[in-house]
Design goal:
- The chain is of the alpha/beta class.
- The protein has 2 domains: about 250 residues, Aspartate Aminotransferase, domain 2, CATH 3.40.640; about 130 residues, Alpha-Beta Complex (Aspartate Aminotransferase, domain 1).
- Helix content is about 40%, strand content about 15%.
- It is globular and about 80 Å long.
- The termini are far apart.
- It binds pyridoxal-5'-phosphate.
- The site of pyridoxal-5'-phosphate has 16 residues, from helix 4.
């Protein structure tokens, strides 16, 4: 299916809505039946019927069908946040007594799910360094039902060899879930590499404007229908029709946004690599990165996130650099217009809490601004940092 068709026409039936060019929003909580027989039919075919918006809604369906097409899966199901999607996907694959192997240091919410919530319900979790496929294989046990991947991963952008890990899992009857948010639906297609369930925080690249929370799970019709009837309807973390509509709108510009982000990020990374104030740029798309070949093999292009380690001895230097940036915004999340930084230093507390990453570590997201504009901002912030007396 062609990309241009997916983003505009697919699942949009204009004739049903006064031939409006932009799709409508079905802002309704429920749908009427004319006869008892019709209502009975809807109740018996819940996965296909418009009955109640905690189940199906046409605007949400539009988004789901487009993203399923982008990910190359039979079906997709949308949630009110990325964590709603991650939690439903994971919970759909486990029961008490099961064992999960999860990549080390996934997104904060997924980390809490694995470390705190699953164990409360009798599910055991082993966290492994996913850069070595052997770690996944060795951690697998008789009762392992799920491998959880996030590639590239949060903050450190470590990759897992998706094909090798899913091939092993399939042989053992172990399900695989991947968080594909950092790659976007355009630059990595995990389903084609054998992954069973592909998850996105739609809040990020899919929205593209930093104004909606959403999540999506993509997979076979059988798996998605099972999630629909259980985790989706029961936990109720559904997406509102209005937010689905905003995400459909965001999708229309996804390819041009991703292309722009990819290009600007290459320029900014090249600039940072030249700077003496930067000890290291952590980005799998640099030819000297140990996972460069794997990145080339399983991703179509680079995205807009990387981290740096500042060449700094004190927390004050790091703070001076970050506080001096005028165009980069300091905030969580990413995927919108604005370039962002997330300094690990913000997680260091006077109470002595130290995260597992060094205080010199800063995560970047490059947005849609001009590269020159961003580099000038970095330049002046480096100068302020250098002027600081030791
Ligand atoms: C933001 C994010 C999530 C969670 O998404 P929300 O929409 O904030 O719930 C999950 N995984 C990754 C990789 C993320 O960046």
């Amino acid at each position: 299916m062609e990309l241009s068709y997916i983003l505009n026409e697919l699942a949009e039936d204009r004739t049903a809505y006064f031939n409006a060019v932009a799709p409508p929003i079905m802002q309704t909580s429920n749908f009427a039946s004319r006869t008892v027989a019709e209502m009975r039919h809807k109740l018996q075919n819940e996965t296909e019927s418009d009955f109640y918006t905690r189940g199906n809604n046409p605007t949400v369906r539009m988004l789901e069908q487009k993203i399923a097409a982008l990910e190359g899966t039979e079906e997709a199901i949308a949630f009110g946040s990325g964590m709603g999607a991650v939690s439903a996907a994971v919970l759909s694959q486990v029961k008490a007594g099961d064992h999960v192997v999860c990549v080390k240091r996934p997104y904060t919410g997924a980390n809490k799910l694995m470390r705190h919530l699953l164990p409360r319900f009798g599910v055991e979790v082993t966290m492994v360094d996913g850069r070595e496929i052997q770690n996944f294989f060795q951690a697998a046990k008789e009762n392992t039902t799920l491998f959880y991947l996030e590639s590239p991963s949060s903050f450190t952008f470590e990759l897992q060899d998706i094909e090798a890990i899913t091939a092993f899992a399939r042989e053992r009857g172990i399900s695989t879930v991947i968080d594909n948010s950092f790659a976007s639906p355009l630059f990595q297609s995990p389903a084609a590499m054998g992954v069973d369930l592909v998850v996105h925080s739609a809040t990020k690249y899919i929205s593209g404007h930093g104004d909606v929370l959403g999540g999506i799970v993509c997979g076979s019709r059988e798996r998605i229908n099972r999630i629909f009837l259980s985790e989706y309807m029961t936990l109720g973390a559904v997406l509102s029709p209005h937010d689905a509509w905003l995400l459909v709108r965001g999708l229309r510009t996804l390819p041009i946004r991703m292309e722009r982000v990819a290009q600007t990020t290459r320029q900014v990374v090249a600039f940072l690599q030249q700077r003496k104030e930067v000890a290291e740029v952590i980005w799998p798309f640099l030819p000297n990165h140990p996972q460069y070949q794997l990145a080339r093999k399983q991703m179509r292009n680079n995205t807009g996130q990387f981290s740096i380690r500042l060449q700094a001895d004190t927390l004050e230097q790091v703070e001076t650099f970050c506080d001096s940036l005028q165009h980069f915004t300091m905030a969580a999340s990413w995927g919108g217009y604005e370039s962002l930084i997330f300094p690990v230093a913000a997680s260091y507390t006077s109470g002595g809490f130290k995260p597992s990453l060094p205080f010199t570590f800063i995560r970047f997201y490059i947005g849609l601004e001009d590269a020159e504009y961003l580099m000038r901002d970095l330049e002046q912030a480096f100068q302020k940092m250098n002027q600081q007396p030791f």
